[in-house]
C-alpha cells in the first residue's frame, strides 16, 4: 500500500473536531496545575507541515544535542551517568554486526520472530552510535551507524504477518533519529539516498494509513510516520500522520471534559457504551488521565504515552505547537500512571477492579521535560517517578536514552 497524494493542509479542522476542548479544561487530580500556571492562548487551527523542515529535527535538534554534549563533557549529572550507561551497553558496541533480512516476519507478541528483534535492535544501535558520535566526535561511531543503516537499506523489502504494522512502527521510530544526525551533522554518507528510498517504499506505506488496533499501535505508527516524513521532507505524509495522531490521542487519554464517555476513533464503530467499555479493557469508570490500555497493563500504556510525547516534541521542533490539543492529556496521562506506578496511593476499586499491572518503563523524560522544564507545569508524581528511574535506559523496542537526551534540556 502506498500513501496517496493529499493536500498539505488536509482539512485538519475535521480531524480536530472535539479535540480543542483540552485547551480549556480545569486540571484534575492526577497532576495539579500550579497556582500561576503559564498562560496558554487557545489555538483555533493547527499549522500544516513547515515549508522547510528543521534538521536535525526528530526528537532532537542541534541546540539540544549541543546541550547534551556539553553536560557529558563537564561530567554533570544525570547526563554523565546516563551516557556511561549507554556506552557500556550492547548497542554502543563497535563490534556489532548487522543482521538484515529481505523479509521481516513478526507474528503476535513476535511469534514468529524472524528478524523482528534484530531489526529493532539494529535501529536502536544506529541511533546509539549517532549519539555517541555527536558527543565524542569519534568517527568510528558514525561509521558504525552508517554500516547498520546501509546493511538494512540494502536488504529489507517487506514486513509480514500480523504484527507487521507495529514492528514497522517500532523500527521506523528509531531509524530516522539516527539518520537525522548522520545525514545532517556528520554528513559523509554515500548511501543516504538508498536509506531514504527504504523508508519511503518499505516503511511509510505500512504505517501511514493507520490501524484499528489498540491505541499504542497507531500512536507508535504515527510516531514513525511523522519521524520518517521529517527525514524525507515529505509535507503531505507529515500532515496525514499528524492528523491521525490528533484524532487518536484524545481517543487514548481521557479527560473529564470529554463527557461521560471517552472520545472514539470514527472508523472503529464504537457506537455504544458497552463497546467502549469493552475496548477500554472493561473499565466503566472514566477518570482524568486514564488511558485506553491502563487496565490492560502499564507496559503497553507506556508505549502509547511515549509516542504521544515523541510526536509532540518532534512537532515542536518543526515549529508546530500541539499543546492546546495534546499538552494537558499528556500531562495527566503521565501523572495518573505515575501515581500508581510509584504507589503514591492505593488503587481504588473503581480502577481496574482495584489492581493494576505496573511496569510503565523508561518513558517519562520527554513529556516531563516538555511540560515541566519548558512550560513550568507542576508534575509531582511524574517528577518523582522520573527521578527514581534515572538514568533511564531503553525498552529495547523504540525508546532509548531519554535521561541523556531530554533531562532538563531547555532548548
TrEMBL record:
Single GO term (MF): lyase activity
Pfam families assigned: Alginate_lyase
Domain Alginate lyase: 121-340
Keywords: Lyase, Signal
Keyword Lyase among UniProt keywords: yes
SUPFAM superfamilies, per the entry: Chondroitin AC/alginate lyase
Statement: the UniProt record of this protein carries the keyword Lyase: yes
InterPro entries noted in UniProt: Alginate_lyase_dom, Chondroitin_lyas
Any single Gene Ontology cellular-component annotation: periplasmic space
Signal peptide: 1-30
Domain of life: Bacteria
Gene3D superfamilies: Chondroitin AC/alginate lyase (1.50.10.100)
Protein name stated in the entry: Alginate lyase domain-containing protein
